[in-house]
Amino acid sequence: MRLFIDIGLWLLTVAITLLGLAALTFFIGRILPIDPVLSIVGEKALPEVYQRVYLELGLDKPLWQQFIDYVIKLLRGDFGTSFSTSRPVLTDLLNFFPATLELSTIGLLIGVALGVPMGVASAYWHEKWPDHLIRIIGLVGYSVPVFWLGLVGLFVFYYLLDWVAGPGQLDVFYVGVVDRVTGMILIDSALAGEWDIFWNAVSHMILPALLLGYYSLAYISRMTRSVMLDQLSREYVLTARLKGASEFRVVMGHALRNAAIPLVTVIALSYGGLLEGSVLIETIFSWPGIGNYIYSSLFAADMNAVLGGTLLVGIVFVLLNMLSDVLYRVLDPRSRELAK
Fold first, then answer.
1. Taken in order 151, 153, 154, 155, is the CA torsion positive or negative?
2. pLDDT computed for residue 333 by the predictor
3. Measuring CA to CA, which residue among 22, 4, 3 is closest to residue 14?
4. Which pLDDT does position 1 carry in this prediction?
């Protein structure tokens, strides 16, 4: 019975959170000084044409009624129609989101693979030179604007050194060669056996993925350091050392094992942050993902697309946060005991 109550409360929390997110995106869209009617009919449209579109969009209704209509459409999976592409926004989101998911996932893997060991090392050599060096690296990662790092990276590694491919997901003559299966170019090219396209995609992906990985690394290493410092000060660590356990076993087998539970939440939030923060990276590198789609739609005054993209990223972020809470309960037996 308790399990069903917990599931019901969890679903209610998700529903309220998503409703609040929908309200936030909707009212921000109404506050922005952008006229959706003009973005459709153009500035030279006749007044009667303007009025007809104005009524068709339901802008004559009270704001609360517009919001209710908006939520009802969302529940039906209707995000509206993009004025830029003349396609349903949901169709565009499903086309563009896999590229963002692929890039962000690789960035997260880089961030976890480097950030966790760096955080562990920083905590182990607390207040020594490795700790100071790692903290400086992290400070640069979450202090320097990512768009500036992207521009510098393109200038140095693409323009000057020619070590990586330039903006875009593929070279022009490879575009459209591989059939779209998952929407993720590395997986689709591997499934098709097109290894030239695969390695070309890797070359295009190296720089943006490394920048996202660096951004993620800065946050993960800092949080790992904080959690590990707390674990290394616990009595069980002192007991393990007094029993003659090796430093590797103490740090990796005991402290890091217990630190892994809160790190699940850290990594999930970092993943959501990459999906949310990929807008600038995708814009700089002309990456055909959801971030670039939102950016282009905003400049085209295509508010249906902007709100739909923002809402999708928010939904993913909320679901990742909820998933991290579930994993926390599964991995930590103490939280399950408290829930009983």
1. positive
2. 59
3. 22
4. 63
Output the six-digit token pair for 275: 């999906």
Distance CA 159, CA 161 (A): 6
How many CB atoms sit inside 10 A of residue 313's CB?
A: 24
Tell me the two tokens of residue 269: 């939030």
Torsion sign over Cα 109, 110, 113, 117: negative
Q: How many CA atoms lie within 13 A of 186 on its CB side?
A: 15
pLDDT along the chain (340 residues), means of 10: 70 80 79 72 76 78 84 84 84 90 92 93 90 90 84 90 87 85 90 91 92 90 91 86 83 84 85 78 88 82 81 81 75 55
User: Whole-angstrom Cα distance, residue 260 to residue 165?
Assistant: 36
- Report yes or no: 246 and 301 within 8 Å, Cβ to Cβ: no
pTM: 0.83
Cβ distance 224 to 119 under 8 Å? yes
**Alpha carbon distance 78, 90 (integer Å):** 7
For tokens 């003559």, name the residue: 173
3-state DSSP assignment of residue 81: strand
pLDDT of residue 334: 58
CATH 1.10.3720.10 fits 93-339, yes or no: yes
Q: For the chain, what are the domain ranges?
A: 2-75, 93-339
The position carrying tokens 């009919």 is 41
- Beta bridge mates, 81: 88
Cα–Cα distance measured from residue 112 to residue 130, given in angstroms and rounded to the nearest whole number:
19
3-state SS, one letter per residue, for 263-278: HHHHHHHHHHHHHHHH
